[in-house]
Amino acid sequence: MKVQKFLAPTLRDALSQIKAELGKDAIVLSTKQLQQGGIEVTATSDEAEETPRSGLRGAFTPAPAAPAPAPQAAQPSLSELDIERVMTPIRSELRSLRSTLRMLADGQLDAGIKNELTLLRKTITTLRPNEEPKKDPSQELQAIVSKNILVAPSQKRVVVFVGPTGAGKTTTLAKLAAREALVKGKTVALLTMDRHRVGGLEQLRTFSRLIGVPLTVIPEPAKLQPVLQDLAAFDRLYVDTAGHSHRDTAAIRALLPAFVERAEIEVHLVIPAFISAAHIDLLLKAYAPLEPDRLLFTKLDESEDLSELVRAPARTGKPLSHLATGQRVPEDAEDATTERLISLALKGFAPEVSNENAR
Ligand SMILES: Nc1nc2c(ncn2[C@@H]2O[C@H](COP(=O)(O)OP(=O)(O)OP(=O)(O)O)[C@@H](O)[C@H]2O)c(=O)[nH]1
Ligand SMILES: [Mg+2]
């Protein structure tokens, strides 16, 4: 018996090969669809060895059955059987393709593709912050400026400074009082509600003597209003308070009795320019009960990033009144203007070069 395997791209080619090699009476024993493509056909030329199990008979002619050969017409042609064997995996492949096409038509695969896209989009979004080109800060700030009021001068007779400890309240108060009294020739008085800080009163007393204006100590917040009436003859009254961190909300609220009558009073929240935007927002929140009318930034000379000078008033809706740029009284204070804020936010603070240093 000669059993031989034939590899061919199609069954038709395989059968041609078998016919050429084993003759037209060859019997196909098995066929196998190959994964890499093509077909493997095992065939024999020995009709005596044929087994009935396969039902695979001679590829080209029916094999004669030993005892009583069945009539040829009653059996399917061998070629058909072979083709059927080959067709089974092809049919299953077609079925799978058909179901894939149906899924496509139903949009089920679409959902899969959508999920893939969503994942891709998420990945791209997480990458984007590093990839995005940086915005032009000047354009960004100009856009803020065009939509918001950033500055407003002091408009009321009584100016009260509140804010965190060491922000520069007392020093800035002295600068402004000196300017009003000495430069503008206004009648000015200093008042203080700060009874906490060691040396605080002495500090203010020194300033009042230097500027030549009276100082009144307010023993408790509720006493502010009557004193304001007593000092009705003065053009400007500057009121100092003790510093409180944003965490000390009780102490901040304790100042409320001073503000029962607000018509004459303007509250300025004094903030060191070097603190973060988040810290500024915490201060705004903590001091909200006192309803600050203005923000006042100090210590510009100690700060690197001054963009909050533009951003904070836009974000909070509270305009800036003044800026403090150093320790010198009264020189290191100025009125806030929009142009100055943009310049400071973009270029930072540049201290004046004194003649002494220049030499
Ligand atoms: N570099 C710089 N220092 C400043 C500025 N303003 C105030 N200071 C200094 O900051 C320190 C604290 O200033 P004060 O005016 O006492 O601050 P305060 O807010 O009254 O402080 P408390 O009363 O303790 O809450 C002092 O040494 C000031 O000279 C400023 O604009 N720039
Ligand atoms: Mg003080």
Provide structural commentary.
With 359 residues, the protein is an alpha/beta fold. It has twelve helices and eleven strands. The strands form two sheets. An eight-stranded mixed beta sheet has the order 6-5-7-4-8-9-10-11, sandwiched between helices. A three-stranded antiparallel beta sheet has the order 1-3-2. Helix 4 runs antiparallel to helix 11 (338-347) and helix 5 runs parallel beside helix 6 (200-211). The radius of gyration is 47 Å and the shape is rod-shaped. Bound molecules: guanosine-5'-triphosphate (GTP) and magnesium ion. Magnesium ion binds at residues 169-170, 194, 197, 200, 240.
Round the Cα radius of gyration to an integer and report it: 47 Å
Strand order of the largest sheet: 6-5-7-4-8-9-10-11
Low-confidence stretches: 49-76
Mean pLDDT level: 84
DSSP E strands, number: 11
Distance between the termini: 117 Å
Structural class: alpha/beta
Bound molecules: guanosine-5'-triphosphate, magnesium ion
Per-chain topology:
Elements: E1 3-8, H1 11-22, E2 27-33, E3 39-44, H2 78-106, H3 108-131, H4 137-147, E4 158-162, H5 169-183, E5 188-192, H6 200-211, E6 215-217, H7 224-230, E7 236-240, H8 249-253, E8 265-272, H9 277-287, E9 294-298, H10 308-316, E10 320-324, E11 333-335, H11 338-347, H12 355-358
Parallel strand pairs: 4-7, 4-8, 5-6, 5-7, 8-9, 9-10
Antiparallel strand pairs: 1-3, 2-3, 10-11
Helix pairs in contact: 4-11, 5-6
The protein binds guanosine-5'-triphosphate (GTP) and magnesium ion.
Residues 165-172, 194, 197, 200, 243, 298-299, 301-302, 324-327, 332 line the site of guanosine-5'-triphosphate.
